[in-house]
Each structure stands twice: as C-alpha cells, then as structure tokens.
Amino acid sequence: MNKFIPSLSVLVLTLVFALSSCIKDELLNAECDIVSAWVEGEQYAENFYLPSQMHLDNISTSEKEIVFTVRSLISLPTKIPVYFNITPGATIQPASGTEQDFTKGPVVYTVTSQDGAWKRQYTVVFKEASMPTYKFSFENYETLESNSNSYHEFFEVDQSGNRHNIWASGNPGAILIKYKSKAEDQPTYSLVDGYQGRGVCLNTQDAGSLGQMFGKPIAAGNLFMGKFILENVLLNPLKATEFGRPIDRVPVRVTGYYKYRPGAVFTDKDKKEKPGRTDEASIYAVFYRNKDARGNDVYLYGDDVLSSPYIVKKAEVASLPPTDQWARFEMFFEGEEADPKILEAQGYNMTIVFSSSKDGASFEGAIGSELCIDEVEVSFEELDKQ
C-alpha cells in the first residue's frame, strides 16, 4: 500500500489548493450596484428646484433608471459630472465624476462587480419636472370691425367648447388713427405660418399725426392677459392696459416660441433718433394678489405692472436675440410663496405680456420691429404641493 501514498498525497494537495482557490474567489464581492448618485457644485444648483434633488440616496437594487429632476433641459449645461457610490470593489464606466452631456438624452453606465463575473447597466437621465400646464396655440381669433377698420381679437376655447376672452391688445386704440385698414395692418394680428398652425405677429408702427399730437408717436404691437380700456388710450394710456386674470394655481414657468426682427431706427418719445440704440422685444409674466386689505379688487396697469406691492412673483425673458427662425424661450417665476387660503379663494391674478418694443409703453422703440409668438405653455406647481 505504501506505493499509493505519494499519489494520495498529490490528490489531497490538489484538493486543498482547489478549495483555497474557491474560498479566495468567494471573498471577492459579486455585487454590482449603484447605491447613490449625486451632482455637486453651486454652478449646477440653479438647475434644480430644491438642493435635495441633487442627491439621490438609497437607490433600489431593482432600479435600472436613475432620474434627476431639473427645472429645464433648455438651460441645462452640456457638461455635468455625476458622482456615484457603488458597492465595495466594483467599478463603473464611464467613471464617477466624468462630465457628460445629458441634454442629448440618457447616458448608460455599466457597473462591474469586484470578481468581474457580474455586470449591471444603469440609465442616468435628466428630466424636466412634470407639472400641470396651460397651453396657448393662438388658433382662435375673431375679426372685428370698427371705424371702417378691421382687427383681430384672440380668445381661448375650453374642452366644453366655451369661449374665454382672456387676451387683449392695443388694436382697438390703434385703429383710431387709421381708415379702411385690414386686420393684418394692425400692430397685433393672426399669423398664418406660426411655429405650429397659426401664431401671433406683433409689430411697432407709426402712430401718425394724431399720435404725434398727443405725444405718443409710435404704437408697439402687444398681447396680454387682461383688458384694454379704450376710454383711457389718449389721455391716460398707461391705464388703458388692465393686466391680469384670476388663477387658482401657482405658476412656475412659461415657455414658447418666438421670432424677432428689430426695426432700423430707434426713436424716443419725441420721435428723435437715438443713434446706436437697438430696439428690443419684451416677454414677461406677473402673479399678484387681486384684493387689497379691505377686499377691494386690485388690477395692475402700465404704470405698475412690474412694480406694484401686490406682486407675489415675476418672470421675464432676459434676452430675445433677433432671429428669423423660430426659437424657444423660457422664463421662471421668482418671488414669494403663495398663500394656500388666498389661492383657494382665487385671490391671485396672472398676466403674460408680449410686446414688439420693450419700451413701447413709454412710446420709445423702432418702427418696423416685429415679434412673432406661438405655442406658449405655462407650467404650475402640483396641486398637492400648494
């Protein structure tokens, strides 16, 4: 039997080495999970509604998609580093902290376990917050006749087919200085070739001898939520525009599409040329309290629409570069928190204002400036957050 001992020893040694090899392999971590993901840096914080949205903790092991909720994809930087905490010993590609362009869509990350035997893929995506919206496509308008002139009046239609006259413009005042003019000759009219379907065209015009006589040499094209009070147009024009309609939700953002072409010559309220100055378009929105302390109705007008103490939040497009192609714009409401009780009682009004000349209310601008708008959308806070 002694002659078999060496062979038995070899067999035992082989089994020992094999067993130790298995134990060694088992010590390597077979997990390949993302535990948390985050974006860091003040330069990225403004893209999120809340700082907490920048850090996603306790990611489920069954999760395949990691979603960062941001204010907008339009203003999102094209290079954002996302950092990850993964299971011990695992590796991730692309590497944690690598800058990626999430504006082009999801980015796939692959996590490989420490033992190299397992892999998991995660899709990391940045998405805009899902919010209730109001959409305005400006497909609905009516042609009205007055003083041998015609002009367009815009309105909205709800799902039940009811008409809502929430939009107004300065057209009723502009036709006072005209005779036998068509709707397309007015400062605000329906545009046939909008971004989708029809749109709205606003243009700054010469107010003629009558306007000159009253110190109002130009008429800027405008469209706004509210009413136009014709009686005030000549003697108190800043009170001719009554801004605001009741709203039962808190607005967060306004987006839409525009085209803009400034006129050639900028003039002041005395119609004197201002060399070197270029006209600018204007798009802004205001959310304000519509009752005072005594319960009286409050409206905003041309002289206080951006300065009234009743304003709660404002939004404004910072820049509208000239373009002959449809371009998207967006603006966010900034200001105080709304009072839920006031909101429930419809104690707030909102207006959105478009003008072909930013200083048109002061009768400064360039004749021929043209702003086209279409597909405007207002996003609101979720009702259960109010």
Overview of the structural elements:
It is built from 5 helices and 31 strands. Strand 8 and strand 9 form a beta hairpin.
Keywords summarizing the entry:
single chain; 386 residues; 5 helices; mainly beta; disordered N terminus; 6-stranded antiparallel sheet; 11% helix; 8-stranded antiparallel sheet
> What is the residue-mean pLDDT, rounded to a whole number?
88
Strand-residue proportion: 35-45%
Global morphology: elongated
Count every beta strand, where a strand is a DSSP E run of 2 or more residues: 31
Characterize the largest beta sheet: strand count, sense, and whether it forms a barrel: 8 strands, antiparallel
Low-confidence stretches: 1-25
Q: Helices and strands: which structural class?
A: mainly beta
Helix content: 10-25%
Total count of helical runs of at least 4 residues:
5
Radius of gyration: 31 Å
State the separation between the terminal residues, measured CA to CA. Answer: 89 Å
